[in-house]
Design goal:
This protein is α+β, with helices and mostly antiparallel strands. It contains ten helices and 14 strands. The protein has a single domain, classed as Jelly Rolls (Sandwich), CATH 2.60.120.330. The structure holds 2-oxoglutaric acid and fe (ii) ion. Keywords: Antibiotic biosynthesis, Iron, Metal-binding, Oxidoreductase.
Length: 339
């Protein structure tokens, strides 16, 4: 078994209990929390229709892209660059909230107490009028993959998927990650080219599409070592998040991952982070706790979401960024000119 298996989703969902396919899925889900899926049912056009306009936006001159930053300084809306401590570009992102405004959230059935989550507008570049519909289709398709993968994991560990109280509408976010290339001397080691540090997502499942010429995404195995996730055209990458680990009282691993890129290699990824509905309290399910004590505290999806920007700014926010957010104006980080 490879650490991050490539699973034919359709075939695995039809596999008999006890089959080698399900044994592979089970090992990956319990020990790593990262898989790739093929034959996942998402049409190639749904992926391309989102990625191609994003390519064109990210190829615009920086002075044009600066105008696509969140007008209110929200770290998870619109275009953004992240410099490292030396001012060198590490990561460029374009982020989309689930709804454009509180009225749209309300129409989708989101309770009023969560409307503040959608008070900061999305940025829809006028250059790409089709992006909004393409992003909606991409998000919806990837939520569908997340649900099917949960069904697969349930089968692989022999529980009914109905034990997971995953109700909709799912709370989701959509993030494009673009890693820079550079011509300065290449430090050579992975540790010195870590552009996204190791972490597990706080979703139930995250579904990603990666593109590029280098397998820079790495997943952590049970021995602590890192394995590259090869770039397989058409495949999607699925990370188990901390909420899946919580529900299963640790039986299923939250996939720890990181990204090595930079230098001459290219990498682009676009992830949909999938959570159950905002009023869900995630806590270890009786099926996984047995007679013992749960190992995880209850996690209220909506409350955590409401606090997430403050949590983020407290840990990572630069003073000018925090000031811009407080004052409701755009923030564009200073970055060193590429060399
Ligand atoms: O670029 C990637 O493949 C990883 C992105 C990621 O881990 C994240 O956005 O949480
Ligand atoms: Fe991640």
């Amino acid at each position: 078994m490879t650490t991050v298996p490539i699973i034919d989703l359709e075939a695995a969902l039809a596999a008999e209990p006890g089959s080698p396919e399900l044994a592979t899925v089970r090992a990956a889900a319990e020990q790593v929390g990262v898989v790739q899926v093929t034959n996942h049912g998402v049409a190639a056009e749904v992926i391309d229709n989102f990625h191609r306009p994003v390519d064109r936006i990210l190829a615009l001159p920086r002075a044009v892209k600066e105008r696509l930053a969140s007008p209110t300084g929200h770290p998870y809306r619109g275009w953004r660059q992240w410099p490292d401590d030396y001012g060198r570009l590490e990561l460029e992102r374009f982020s989309f909230g689930q709804y454009d405004d509180p009225a749209e959230a309300s129409a989708a059935g989101v309770p009023a107490e969560y409307h503040p989550l959608f008070a900061h507008a999305n940025v829809w570049p006028a250059q790409e009028p089709g992006l909004r519909a393409a992003a909606d289709a991409y998000r919806a398709a990837f939520v569908g993959v997340a649900r099917r993968v949960l069904g697969l994991y349930a089968r692989a560990i022999g529980v009914d998927v109905a034990v997971f109280p995953w109700t909709g509408p799912e709370y989701t976010s959509l993030v494009v990650n673009d890693y820079p290339t550079w011509t300065r001397p290449d430090p050579g080691t992975d540790e010195e080219k870590l552009l996204l540090l190791e972490h597990a997502d706080n979703s139930v499942l995250t579904v990603l599409h990666q593109e590029g010429d280098y397998a820079g995404l790495q997943a952590q195995g049970p021995d602590g070592g890192w394995s590259s996730v090869p770039v397989v055209p058409g495949a999607l990458q699925v990370f188990s998040g901390s909420l899946l680990s919580n529900w299963t009282n640790g039986r299923l691993a939250a996939g720890r991952h990181r990204v090595v890129a930079g230098g001459t290699v290219t990498r682009r990824s676009a992830a949909v982070f999938v959570h159950p509905s905002l009023d869900t309290v995630v806590e270890p399910l009786p099926e996984f706790v047995g007679d013992g004590e749960p190992d995880f505290d209850p996690h209220h999806v909506g409350r955590a979401a409401l606090g997430s920007v403050e949590d983020y700014l407290q840990v990572f926010g630069r003073p000018e960024q925090v000031a811009a957010y407080r004052e409701g104006r755009p923030y564009v980080a200073a970055v060193e000119e590429p060399v």
